[in-house]
Amino acid sequence: MHTLSDTREQRPTTALLLAAGMGSRLAPLTDSTAKCLVDVSGVSILERLLRTLGEAGFTRLVVVIGHESDSIQDYLGDHSGDIEISYVTSKSYRTTNNIYSLWLARKTIDEPFLLIESDLVFDGALLEGMLKPDRVAVSRQLPWMNGTTVTFGGKQGDVSAFCLGEMSRPDATHYKTVNIYSFSRETWRVISERLDTYVAAKRTGDYYESVFAEMIADGSITLKPVLFDADAWYEIDTLEDLAAAEEMFPRYSQELKREAASAEANRAAEGAAG
Fold this sequence. Notes:
The protein has 274 residues and is α/β, with parallel strands linked by helices. Helices cover 34% and strands 23% of the residues.
C-alpha cells in the first residue's frame, strides 16, 4: 500500500499541454496553424517538447486542443513515437482562458503530472528538477519578462505568494513563473475542486494562476520552487519573442532540425519499403 508520502514523491510520467489558445499575438504565423507548431530555428515548439519529455521518461501526453486542433492531431499522429497521446477538446477556446483548459482536463488525469504551456522553449536539462510533484518552475527576472511572479518564505523555502497584476514587482524578491508545474495526485484533486467553483461562477476568463494564488494564500496547497536559468528558456507570445528565442537556441535548434530531418527520411524509406 502506498502512503501519502510515497505518492507525493512519485515521479510523474504524464504531461499536460495546454494548446487550445489562438496565439493571436503571433499572427500571421498562427492564422492557419497552432501556436505549438510554430518553428523556432526550424524546429517546432511541440517537437522540442516531445523530445524533452521522451528523454525524461514521460510515457503519456494529454493535450487540450481548440484552435487548429486538426493540425496538432495530425502532427502528433506522425511524431509522438512511444508517448501515448490523449486529447481534450475545448469548444469554447475563443472565449475562455487557460483556467478553463486546465479544468477540462480534470477527468482525464488522475495521477501525478507535469503541466506546461504550449509557448515555451527551454533547455531540456532544466526539467530534471521538476520530476517530483508539487513543484513550480521559476526564474530570476529579465527585462523581457512580464506577468505572474512568486515570492518565497518559511523554513522550507516554499512559495509564499503568487503575485498577479499590480502585485507583481520587477525586483529581486520576486521570481517569474515559467508556466511549468508538477502536481501530486492529491494536490491535483484539491485544485480540481477549486477549479469547479471558478467555472461554476463563470470565471472562465481568468488565469489558473488566480486559483494557485488563492490556494497558496489559504494553505490549501504547497509548492516548492525550482529555479530555471533565465538565459535558458523563453516564452513566445509575439514575433519579437520568436526572434529572441531563435537567438537563444541556435545550436540546439540546428541539432534538432538535423535529427528531425533524419527521422522523417527514415519514416519515408520505411513507407516506401512497405
